[in-house]
Amino acid sequence: MIRINARGAVYGEIWYDEDPPGDPGVDILLYRLHAAPIPRVRTKPFLSLTVNLDFNADEIMGQFGKDCRYKIRRADTKDGLRMEFITEPASRLQEFCRFYDAFAQQKGVQPADTKWLAAACKAGQLVFTAAFQGEEALVWHEYLTCRKSAQLQYTGSHFRNMGNDHRALVGRANRWLHWQDMVRFKEIGMKRYDWGGLFEDESTPERAGINRFKKEFGGTQERTYDCTVPLTLRGRIYLPLREALDQLRGAYRRLSTGKARFDSKQPAF
Predict the structure, then answer these.
(1) What are the distances in angstroms from CA 120 to CA 2, 25, 74, 177, 268?
(2) SS3 sequence, 136-188?
(3) Which of 38, 139, 156, 238 has the fewest CB atoms within 10 Å, i.e. the most exposed one?
(4) Quick one: pLDDT band at residue 87, thresholds 50, 70, 90?
(5) Does residue 268 form part of some domain?
(6) Contact criterion met (CB below 8 Å) for 3 and 11
(7) For the whole model, what pTM was predicted?
């Protein structure tokens, strides 16, 4: 269980239908990506795309689009990339956050949630991956792992204000890294690669583009549910207050920026 100390309550997160501990010791329990909604509690549907890693590597890649396969193979043979697969990420948290936050600033999205990342790291459920060309980091990914599944949570790359050749290189490196991630997760026994969400509303070019990118890799659409269960009196009092505060903050951001900010964490890209 991932344990998070908020200002007014203690949260616990469990994922993919794992069983909660007998005595969670938290005020609010979050069931992330639960197979079915839990009656009479706050429930939010979540649509995502998953790739079955039970097949062999050729069968998995055979589901990718032709252009996607070409870019991955070119990156593998001509771009001189190397991968880092980091299963003990405590010493790399700051490095990841610096890279991602620079990306987030370019995109105008929220920076990395350092409190959540530290909690997931402490729970042993955090994995970082990165693609480098020489000593230059081109792309970083961050995953939540649980019950033979790896879910993409954050992805960042640096190519804004760069030339077309560099932008194309980073695009290939990103696809290549997703593929390498699938291979490595398969090697350590993972069965599912979860893309971290799909937008059901594709009314903006950015959302449509993110969905299109993910669908290049094949996979199956799945709907799960995030369910929020208060376990203590403090939790039952805190939840409606937090919800009202979030609505006020959202309204303020829309007024101050003139538009709703894109959610950088889910769905991930």
Answers:
(1) 6, 17, 34, 22, 17
(2) EEEEEEEEEEECCEEEEEEEEECCCCCCHHHHHHHHHHHHHHHHHHHHHHHHC
(3) 38
(4) very high
(5) no
(6) yes
(7) 0.90
Domain-located, residue 176: yes
pLDDT for res 202: 95
Give the pLDDT confidence score for residue 265 in this predicted structure. 45
> Are the CB atoms for 108 and 261 separated by under 8 Å?
yes
Residue 37 to residue 39: CA distance in whole angstroms: 6
User: Residue 169: which residues within 8 A CB-CB, separation 6 or more?
Assistant: 79, 133, 138, 159
CATH number assigned to the domain comprising residue 238: 3.40.630.30
Q: How many residues are present in the chain?
A: 269
Token reading at 23:
């005595």
**Residue 155, CA distances (Å) to 44, 100, 141, 158, 176 in order:** 23, 7, 4, 11, 13
**pLDDT score of 116 more than 80:** yes
Residue 142 has pLDDT above 90, yes or no: yes
User: Cα separation of 111 and 122, whole Å?
Assistant: 20
| Structural domain harbouring 116 | 2-257
User: For residue 262, is it within any domain?
Assistant: no
Cis bond upstream, residue 267 (ω within 30)? yes
DSSP bridge partners of 142: 128, 154
Contact between residue 201 and residue 17 where contact means Cβ atoms under 8 Å apart: no
In a domain, 166, yes or no: yes
Distance from chain centroid for Cα 101: 15
Single out the residue of 44, 159, 59, 156 nearest to residue 99, CA to CA.
156
Residues 178, 139 contacting (CB under 8 angstroms) = no
Place of tokens 């090697």: 187
